[in-house]
Amino acid sequence: MYEILSDFLLRPAPFSVSTTELLWTDPHIAGEMLRFHLDGENDLASRRATTIDGFVAWLDRRFPLAGLAVTDLGCGPGLYTSRYAERGGMVTGLDFSASSLTHARKAAEGAGLSIDYRQADYLRDDLPGGQDLATMIYGDFCAMAPDRRSRVLGKIKAALKPNGVFVFDVFSTGMFDELHEETLFQPRLMNGFWAAGDYIGFKMTQLYRDEAISLERYLIVTPDRTFQIHNWMQYYTPDIITAEVLAAGYSAVEIVDFATGGPWPGGATAFAVIARP
């Protein structure tokens, strides 16, 4: 156990360890993630329902969804895809969480919506081609290492029609400035989120200030197993994300407020990026 704890206290190189898939493939954790996604009153796993409604409303004003081929990457339980389909979009949702997709399919069937849900990893698997619009929401882009971000940008660009758009959100450096480093541990950390039975959870928040990167690192010790989770997050200024997207071959980038589609006011809030191939 000493070796495990010693390793936990080390400061890994940014994005040197990836555990994202465990969040969505471990049956208990995936179920907890889904529960948080479906709670429209908090921002723990997805944004509040009112914020999602506002985003989809301005997206539909800017790019009328009726008749458009739309793909949502990392669609989860369908919070955005269902709203796109309700506005007439021809929607595909990609996610590698089986539990989230099961919920999304049942919800679409119950609402009479035709949505093509596919269990896939957008980093590895083919994307639907000929798309008018692609979206990636709630900081998914920020959670990827630089080489993976570059790969995804290229794949999405290839999947879009010449006049298509890629709309995604990123977390701002103003949000990064509000973070602080901490270390804590407690029995059943996060009220049983990490395992069904007894466990002890350790959490360490580490900040890489020169790179504007944060790491939330968890060590979970149960009677039967020990595992770690690394949640990385890259934070951006409009200039930095614009340069990154243009370097991937896109022709134009626009920065807007995520909730309204208007000018981004700055500060400790996320903003949306509209990228054109």
UniProtKB/TrEMBL annotation:
UniProt keyword annotations, A-Z: Methyltransferase, Transferase
Coiled coil region boundaries: none
Protein name as catalogued: SAM-dependent methyltransferase
Span of domain Methyltransferase: 70-164
A family per Pfam: Methyltransf_25
GO molecular function, one term: methyltransferase activity
Biological process annotations from GO: methylation
Signal peptide stretch: none
Transmembrane segments: none
